[in-house]
Amino acid sequence: MSARTTWGELRDRRMDEPGAAEEYEAARLAYELGRTVRRMRVERGLSQISLARAAGMTQSAVARFEAGGTVPSLPVLERLAHALDADLAVTLTPRSPAA
């Protein structure tokens, strides 16, 4: 009988594959952006339909974005920010001091 692989072991093996870390980071970013938009939408009492109309999108596009399924382009993020009466801030922060 063979030993079972745990989720952690499987994840570690997958993360060693080429491009896996980049894909994982892209998925994290999509999730965080979607979560932020959903939180702001709910705080403002907006439905997905009303946000979609205000941003010139479809409700299904808003739903996919909020679920972390897509990362929108900067122009789409700008439209979402405007529809949410929010400012869009894109920053690059060094991970370590420049040499």
TrEMBL record:
A cellular component term, taken from the record's GO annotations: cytosol
Family matches, as Pfam families: HTH_31 (PF13560)
Residue span, HTH cro/C1-type domain: 37-92
Sorted UniProt keywords: DNA-binding
InterPro entries associated with the record: Cro/C1-type_HTH (IPR001387), Lambda_DNA-bd_dom_sf (IPR010982), TransReg_Diox_bact_type (IPR050807)
Highest taxon, organism lineage: Bacteria
One of the record's GO molecular function terms: DNA-binding transcription factor activity
Name listed for the protein in its UniProt record: Ribosome-binding protein aMBF1 (Putative translation factor)
Organism: Lipingzhangella halophila
